[in-house]
Amino acid sequence: MDRISRQRRSWNMARIPSKGSRPEMRVRRLLYSMGFRYRLHRMDLPGRPDIVFATKRKIVQVHGCYWHGHGCARDHKPTSSEAYWSEKIAKNRTRDERSMKLLSELGWDVLVVWECEIDRIDQLRLRLRDFLSQASQSAWTIS
Ligand SMILES: [Zn+2]
Fold first, then answer.
1. Do 95 and 102 contact (CB within 8 A), yes or no?
2. Which of 40, 49, 78, 134 is the most buried (most CB within 10 A)?
């Protein structure tokens, strides 16, 4: 039996950041089932946004509550190495803000979906539909 408790291990696993993370996959599946098509992780855009609707000039970002410091019930803080993680999360938040600002300067509308919102799927579906069916506020920038 190794020293890491099962609970601790699942905590570690849940915090491994990756592309195509579970919350993001769920939002992608939802969007797909709603008939929307998108591109993923456009390298040429600030912060490599998760889900990109190029012709609508809209972006959906899926944020894990822990990694992006949502401060909700899902955003549990570990008891050990707290300073280390807080610093990492603070960096993520700064990066998020910078990417959002740059994207909006480039004429993109961005909707952030938090991990904890994905469980309320009906509400989320409405929000996504609203966001994606509105005319882009920056439509004039499309040449
Ligand atoms: Zn949250």
1. no
2. 49
Domain-located, residue 108: yes
Where residue 69 sits, what CATH number does that domain have?
3.40.960.10
Going from the Cα of 5 to the center of ligand 1, the distance in angstroms, rounded, reads 25
Would you state the pLDDT for residue 52? Answer: 96
- Rounded to the nearest whole angstrom, what is the distance from the C-alpha of residue 64 to the centroid of ligand 1? 7
Residues, Cβ < 5 Å to ion ligand 1: 65, 70, 72, 74, 114, 116
Q: How far is the CA of 117 from the centre of ligand 1 (A)?
A: 7
20-45 pLDDT tens trace: 678 999 999 999 999 999 998 888 99
Per the structure, the complete domain to which residue 30 belongs is given by: 18-132
Q: Which of 14-18, 53-57, 129-133 has the lowest mean pLDDT?
A: 14-18
Give the tens place of pLDDT for each residue, 79-124. Answer: 667 788 889 999 999 999 999 999 999 999 999 999 999 999 999 9
Instruction: Please give the backbone phi and psi of residue 49, each rounded to the nearest 5 degrees, phi first.
Output: -55, 150
The token pair that represents 71 in the structure block: 């401060």
Distance from the CA of 2 to the center of ligand 1, in angstroms? 32
d(CA 91, CA 12): 19
pLDDT for position 63: 93
Cα 93 to averaged position of ligand 1 atoms, centre (Å): 14
The answer to whether residue 98 sits within a structural domain is yes
Q: 42: alpha, beta or left, given left = phi > 0 and alpha = psi -120 to 50?
A: beta
